[in-house]
User: Fold these one by one.
Assistant:
Number 1:
Amino acid sequence: MDLGLKGKKAIVTGGTRGIGRAIANRLATEGADVAICARNGDEIAEAVAALQGMGVQATGAVVDVGDGAALKAWIDQAVGELGGLDVLVPNVSAMATTEDEAAWRAAFEIDIMGSINTVEAALPHLEKSEAGAIVAINSVAALQFFGGVRPYNTMKAALVNHMSNLAHALAPRGIRVNSVSPGTIYFKGGVWHTREVETPEIYKGALGLNPMGRMGTPEEVADAAVFLCSPRASFISGTNLLVDGALTPSVQY
């Protein structure tokens, strides 16, 4: 299926590894030009070169999404380099799983304010697009008791709510807003690979909860996210799509 993304312009935060990298790659294979940011300059250089090797325009920069001014400046610069903006994927998380005050503050500044500031900086550019779309990367931890009482879960729940409200507010302006909530996603260097090595009992316990008997891949999340980004999903807005292999036990309405 042609998703209609050829020539579209996309920004993916946290686009050098894991789910963010898979989304950037998938956008590029669909013919979209892509800008990415992250905090590791070497990883950015490698990712940008790989994206350019797919035959699209690509750019990237070192950006801390917790720095609102720097984030806005980069988004404006990236839009200028790409020549517009059609697709925005806020993907960065502090991954805050401890209960201390510093973790709560980090989760709020990165997961919530980082996402809000990313959207606010991009909106003036998205409004000029005929196919403006925002897809925030969330988590099934927003929807269930998973891993204990953690800032990560709470902030992801708030992000689902915020994106749903944005969908209603921005629909009259021609911008669609959705979320994708992955379940347990495995990749080398990722959270579940680390737990497999360091705390195998936790890894095995989480794996045992998956009805499909396995964890997902970044590419499986990317396929869902990029579809929602595309004009093929032109009448889908305000949804939170689970990509979890039926891990979440609640009934979806």
Number 2:
Amino acid sequence: MVVIRLQRGGRTHSPVYTIVAADKRNPRDGRFLERLGQYDPNAHDGEVLKNVRAESIKAWMDKGAALSDTVKSLLKKAKVQL
């Protein structure tokens, strides 16, 4: 099953997360199918979601992918239309 979830990156104490479509069986920071955007919780300009490809997320969801709870709440807060 494909899941749209966060993949951790960045440095110690200043993480940057990438929104990815990945197989559920792969580890959190392991192999993924496609990059779909970025989440920066430490963004100073107030824009925590960057380069979100809503069309690709919608396409993955139409193919049966599930959103993780965290990604779902982030997209809802940022008012991204799916």
Number 3:
Amino acid sequence: MYYDDHEPAHFHAEYAEDEVVISIETLAVIAGGLSARALGLVADWAVLHQDELRRAWLKAKNLEVPDRIAPLS
């Protein structure tokens, strides 16, 4: 996430030289792309942490440091 970023609420995920932007509410891809395997891992992680992503988005919008979100284990 980037501080004071544009709506809709979203997060960025990078893998190698690829990047994807994913909606926090719908978990749909907004822009970019990743390999099917990488996108699947990001989607699995996002489902587990959707509420934390919402809270992190609000903090970032308010220029506050978002809480750390655990990686996929």
